[in-house]
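DM from R.C. (forwarded with permission)

"hey, sorry to bug you on a friday — could you get me a structure for this? deadline for the figure draft is monday and I only need the backbone to look sensible"
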Amino acid sequence: GREAADRLGVIAKHLSSQTAVEGGKDGRFQYTLDEYCVGVLTPEQRRFYEENGYVVVPKLIPEAHLATYHERFVDLCEGRVETPPFMTIMRDVSTTALKLKGEHAVTKIQDYIEDQVLFPYCKNPDLLRYVKCFTGPNVLATHTMLINKPPGVGSTSRHPLHQDLLYFPFRPVDRIVCSWTAMERVHRDNGCLVVLPGTHKGSLLAHGYPDWKEGVNKAYFGVTNLREEDYAKRVHLEMQPGDTVFFHPLLVHGSGENRTKGYRKAISCHFSTADCEFLNVEGTLQEELAKEIGEMFSRKMGYRLPPSEYYLLWRFKSRCVAGDWPTDPQRA
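My reply, with the result:
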């Protein structure tokens, strides 16, 4: 009996050391949660995310849903339906000069939290199964966008390489994830996402407006100190309709110009654990952007929002989509 017990101990030790090789450096995954990955993310997908900071799940959102989102987007662009509270309809800097209208003029719908057609994307049970692998059971939808790259806009439709964490006054960073779903075929010619794999392992970098002679859209900040060798490592994420990429908020990414005669649309949401902490960004790398967004908010809402209160905006526009959020300001 003693000999058998010793042998079992040796086998157990061997198996645990094998697990250590297969997981992260110390056998644990830093960016995904064991309990919620079972039957959802495979060990290979978890390792890929651990190393690269993103993972693509094919055909996650049905095309029928995408058609519904597209129809709603066009209705909003054409003014056929009333714009819900808090929503911002954004236009490219070049569209005014080009005198474009409707779907051709709008590059982004932001904060669709009160839209009864678009917000169900954030509550999709199949999507949330994956989201919980990164956030855990209590989930906030913190930032919602439907992004459009119309044809004929030019190089201003690019989004400079950036880290999403720059915009977010909440932590912990590893319990935040973006889901970005292609609404039509996305490829290099129409401005697919570009990522720098592995950059999620670093820290928040300095950002600013890129020096683009054609102009740059408001609040489209980019990393300021990327080197040529950094650009050489970029990967283009070509995707089919319904494919969804999940990526870490420190992953450096951007997108190119739409050079085709068609549109390029995606719907996305950033999710966070509801157990997150909201922070004052005053005196940090995020302060400059917080000032700019605060000014935009002031013009729209007539209320001054200093960087010290920037986090209040994010608390207010976050919505609990799974589990519980005990400090939900909507309960007050």
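R.C.: lifesaver. The radius of gyration is 21 Å.
me: no worries. The chain has a mean pLDDT of 87.
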